[in-house]
Amino acid sequence: MTKKHFIELTKVISQNVRYDGYNDYGINYKPFLKDLMNLCKESNSLFNEDQFKKAIKLKSFKSNNKRG
User: Are 32 and 16 in contact (CB under 8 A)?
Assistant: First the structure.
């Protein structure tokens, strides 16, 4: 991964993780995964969304739309 990829990854994380108080963080799971998979697809044309979802043991999730 290049510096550009890491910068984009920090954006995905900061847009979807929130601080809920002392040592407690929450994550907007579906938007986070959508953004992360979109970043992977943009970075690698061979990225396989189905394999990724299987690898993280995700049973059902639709990510056809890009967050705007």
Answer: yes
